[in-house]
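Q: I'm teaching a short session on how sequence maps to structure, and I want students to see two examples side by side rather than one. Could you give me a first protein with its sequence written out and its structure tokens following it? Keep the formatting plain so it prints cleanly on a handout.
A: Of course. Example one:
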Amino acid sequence: MAEAHQAVAFQFTVTPEGIDLQLSHQALTEIYLSGVRSWKKRIIRLKNSVITGVYPASPSSWLFVVIAILATMYTRSDPSMGLIAKIQEHLPVSQSMSTQCQAVVSAVLFSTMLWLLLIFTMRLCLKQLLSYHRWMFEQHAKMSTTTKVWVALVRIFSGRKPLLYSYQGSLPNLPVPAVKDTVKRYLESVRPLMDDTEYERMTKLASEFESSLGNRLQWYLKLKALWAANYVSDWWEEYVYLRGRSPIMVNSNYYGMVWLLDYLKPHFWYNRIPGTVIPLCAAQCERIFNTTRTPGEETDTVQHWQDSDYIVVYHRGRYFRLKVYQAGRLLSPREIEFQIQRILDDSSSPSKGEAKLGALTAGDRIPWAKARAKYFSSGVNKRSLDCIEKAAFFVTLDDDEQGMMGDDPAASLDRYAKSLLHGKCYDRWFDKSFSVVYYKNGKNGINAEHSFADAPVIAHLWEVRSTEVNLLGYNTEGHCKGEVDSSLPQPQKLNWEIPPECEEQISQSLAVAQALADDVDFHVFSFRDFGKGKVKKCRASPDAFIQMVLQLAYYRVSGRTFCLTYEASMTRLFREGRTETVRSCSNESSAFVRALEGGETADVCRRLFRAASEKHQQLYRLAMTGAGIDRHLFCLYVVSKYLGVESSFLKEVLSEPWRLSTSQTPVQQVELFDLVNHPEYMSCGGGFGPVADDGYGVSYYIVGENIINFHISCKHSCPDTDAHKFGDQIRKALNDLIQLLSPNPKEPSKPEESRPEAKKDK
């Protein structure tokens, strides 16, 4: 094969005259340029490490301090108060060094120490400032004097032009809530889900835990919080994700649909409030590329490599290694298109057992771990598997066509979502940090593994990628503009030697994965009657509004019951923060839903909605600022397991099912372009599978001012759930609530009485 020959730097043959050494100048040049690229990246990493290491100061500020101190030496003043002289006395220098030279060296050393002390002080001050979160609890557009002073101080102590990881050393640690506060909030959250007898029993269990075992477990947790950067994240990654033995396809991985943008925001994570920006932890960004989840019999591990200059592409059962660097530079879009076309034109057949090999990553983890150890630990299989796992990311060229199309665009969106979530169960590599899927008709999407990072991280990456795509130029024939280097090597097809026993395991894993995929019921729809613009005109939080909609819709579709509801929030205001749970079903939300469905007056329902909305926003703020319920209880449970003690309270809390799991798809850049005049830039967002076998997974995506997209999942095997019926109830609840909050004065004061359900309930 041509690519194999180009990979050899030199060849030699034995002749009667001796050894004939033949050097390949092209290969040697490629090796040299690859080395140059590698060293350039090392230098850039070192430079960035220095810049972020001294942040919020800058390297140039060191020179300013040195010059300032040296200048004082000529004015016969001593700002060091004798320290420079002390350093000079103990300076281990050669006798040949003059006294003046020793003084200069001592001054430089003192200046450096002073500079480092100033950096440490600024970081400490910034860390204390970033521990202030009262601004989140203030009324919209009403900033207190304390917060105004805080904003000014943050701007003073924050450096200019921060890089992605500049704020990492200044972020505060996640605080450990008091046991009594967590228990109190927990009991409040489950009250609408229990009758009096059940609630009294749970209250007794909680009281016993709080007064006895809870304090002991809390002591260990505080000790960990003092020692570790984050007392939750490592245990969350290990026990919630990596120790799961069921398939990660559907159960853990999530997806995002195509997204087009024309602008890119600054490249560090932040929240915005008037007058300043609040940095978010960027630790999860470190493992976006060159990362894979490796299966194990007891627990999986996340492996990350420092660098990779290629991707792996799957097409029609074959795996190809595609280098994205040539002669020390990144390939141009035109060259990548050219290389992809080479793969599409390749007529070779898959190796025996290769076509459905990816099913191993879609099935149960233990069989995959055993197969990996037995069949992929040596030889050609190990080399090919290493190639996939060490790739920057994975790409699937799918021969299907997806997107909103055909005579039934609604059903086509459902198929699009299911395809991104699980595909054919063997044409994705679910262990990779993320896989990009390109369809025959040009639509695309992403499937992401969950253990290494949460959805906002991948969503930001997806937006950046789409921004760059939108900035590309195309010629009249539809190809990317630019030229192609004629010396580009062919993409290298990976080789496999799959024995019959491994093929049998592939078939078994595929059967498990296929049954799981077939059981997923998905419904995606775009609601365009109104959006957050109209909701905000009703003086309501868009997120709280949608959460009340979901509570109302679930109440109706489930037969007038409530359930434990999970809404994901982030804790990246803290170092190495990930997520926290907002328990959206509250006493206030259930009171509102019962009043609306019970035929109360519009004024009463509006008052109860306001209370429920304010309560939800309060719960969300508490979760974001480290005062949530579930991560604290989870960590207390882990400590109890390490200590070998049982807690009936914790065991029951951790076993409660989340029948309604919800999440808002994060958006960083949608407000930077005109969706009204350019609707082609709209994305449907992304989604995930159901968390409970008898529950729903709901992801919603607020696009611009007038569109809300929903992704609903459940399981066909549960007779009590139906994604399309739930979608219908969500649409109805959206319209009912907006009518309630902005009633027409000409209509009766009880608009809900016109609904058949309301009359039936009476």
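Q: Perfect. Now a second example for contrast.
A: Example two:
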Amino acid sequence: MIFSGKAITVSQLDNGFAELNFNLEGDSVNKFNALTTDELRQAAETLRSADNVKGLLVTSGKDVFIVGADISEFGANFSESEEAIAEGVLATNKAVFNVIEDLPFPSVCCINGFALGGGLEMALACDYRVMSTVAKVGLPETKLGIIPGFGGTVRLPRLIGADNAIEWIASGKEQKPEAALKAGAVDAIAEPAKLKEVGLAMLEQAVAGKLNYSAKRQEKLEPLQLNDIEMMMSFETSKAFVAGQAGPHYPAPVTAIKVMQKAAKLDRDGALAEEAKGIAKLAKTEVAKNLVGLFLGDQELAKTGKTWAKKSTAKVEKAAVLGAGIMGGGIAYQSALKGTPIVMKDIAQEGLDLGLSEASKLLSTRVQRGRMTPEKMAGVLNMIDPSLSYDGMDKVDIIVEAVVENPKVKHAVLAEVEEKMAEGAVLTSNTSTISINYLAEALKRPEDFCGMHFFNPVHKMPLVEVIRGEKTNDEAVARTVAYALAMGKKPVVVNDCPGFLVNRILSPYMGAFMGLVKEGADFVQIDKVMEKFGWPMGPAYLCDVVGIDTGVHAGSVMREGFPTRMSADYKSASEVLFEAGRYGQKNDAGYYKYELDRKGRQKKVFDEGVWDILGDHVDARKDFEAETIVDRLMIPMCLEAVRCLEEGIADTANDVDMSLIYGVGFPPFRGGALHYIDDMGVAEFVAKADQYAELGEMYQATDRLREMAKNGETFF
């Protein structure tokens, strides 16, 4: 054994070869944490001075190669000064990856599974790369608000060309073997069982002089072989395009291009210095902090979900959805797509036809995009069993009620199906507004009942709220969480209250929007301001997309639930439009009107006639500062998020923020409502809220939040 550690071993093979194997103890994957990086440094030094090694084979002892850096260590690393971060990154490159690259013999890396971020950068430091047919490679750092820091922006463009490297790094996409080989990022593809054999054969050829590894290595040490015009065409054109794609809130993709452009005329060490400065600058931004926090928050959410799922005493082998249509069809599609057979029950054939049509449409789209074969589509459709009766309901493990949002109808359907389901089966309701405790009143076994709130459209929205009622037992929650996970969703467990978690927090935001319009604000201006803030759409457009009729109904539920905070002494703009028969996109007229573009898709068009309809219900139009608009909408939303946490509707601050990001598209780079408060500073946020306190309870900070401000506390 040449070197032995807890993450890396280097062993002697035949023919004078050595094998450097990544196999991090106590973890299911390999990752570049402090331990692995330090051991790689030691192993590299040992290999550099070894006199009995002719070639190096780099392998993994796990199903993946290396998934990247240990992101949980970013917080401590990024807390240093920008200069210290740059110095640390550069020092690691010189002491670790450059030493690997400069070894006095050839090296071949066997990529057996995911090689992402630092994993691919490790492979790029080797002379040759052999990739398994089931592996994927990529540099996803821009998705975390940073750029590659172990030489990715330096070595990749020298291997695959500036244009390809820009696309790979700016997009952060994972690449399949064929694409990686075509680009030149890897030198061969092999079946998993043959990977090491092919790697050794390539190493033998390099040692024998049949492969010129010195020339291959030299490409990565020298500046890019482009003239000034070629460089300008590659980098300047790409910067403009990528800036338009990424938007103003995500600087990492454009920064990556600028770093590559500065480094293009430099040798390896000079280029690595530019990379270190680039990543250090981004590491100090709130965007990077929040995107890294989002990644870690997603892991925490997944861990919580798995913990709940393990408590379930029975696996969901078969499910049922009551009520077909668009929502029921979407639930049936998602369940069948992910492998859980489902009965789709409705009282009318028209409903079943609509539900099956929805599922078929979604599957057809996958076939058209090459993501599914027609045979696979047929198999998924066969897993959806349409029914006009309750026959077979005693054979399912979980039932999702998804009928119309009417308390009386839901009571009747829930009580009816409870008589047909098996003992121990779980019954859930996909209600978005009606109290789970209230719905449970119709049941004989309320302990087996909970909410399972999907967001529309089901196939696109990742969040599922699992709502625990006062009498709901742990088995019902656990099985529902397990089913949501099996459907590929991100479940969050919340307690019952009007609007549950997400819609409750969203309601003050929409109420504040109505208040501004009542005072004469232009809803088009509000939309533009909030979209610039980072929302995928402004509140007026959101009303149209959700459906103004749906929004009015939800608003009445919230006013009833929180009369002192969410009631208004005026008729809102949405109520006026609803009474005028303008329901939004569903009938082509709401705050905007909707026309079909050349591709047959709805596009919104401003309709001056809306102001005539609103008439005397709103004050004379006047301008508001963009900052005022943001404050007026965001303060009530954030305060409601605080109340939900304080009241125990959600268990953790992470549950709150992740639910908002996955449920309503809260700007990811801002991290969520509670991250938004933290970033502003709790004391500053409270002071800002106090400036608007005269507008009512929605704008008034809680006593606990004031205490946090006084004590310098934060949510994260």
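Q: What should students look for in example two?
A: Point them to this: The domain at 315-496 is CATH 3.40.50.720 (Rossmann fold). Also worth mentioning: The mean pLDDT is 96.
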